[in-house]
Amino acid sequence: MKKKSAKNYLDLIPERNPDIASENDENGLLVLLVENRGIFNKIAQKIFKKPRVSRIHLDEQGSYIWPLIDGGLNVMQLAERQKKQFGEAVEPLYPRFVKYMQIMESYGFIKFKQ
After folding, report:
1. 15, 62, 76, 84: which could form a disulfide with 71 (CB 3.0–4.6 Å)?
2. Neighbour count for residue 78 (Cβ, 10 Å)
3. Around Cβ 4, how many Cβ atoms within 10 Å?
């Protein structure tokens, strides 16, 4: 049997999906603009009046981290910067931050460099 090598998320380097634009809302927080593509989305847009672009509102911590995800810093470095910015509010730091990165990856907002 082959063993799967476990990913050490702290060493991975995330980069943003270049297809996702962002803007600031009235509170200064980031909003990700995700275009809904594909045949099923086109049908939903016509029949159910669904929007062509979904707006994903990030919280204060997400708005701080998003611009830092540039393909240059690894997850550990990003987590340390978040800790420096928000202090005890982000504890437990690493489990929360890794889960956040996993969620961002699952939605296609980021990918990890190979």
Report:
1. 15
2. 21
3. 6
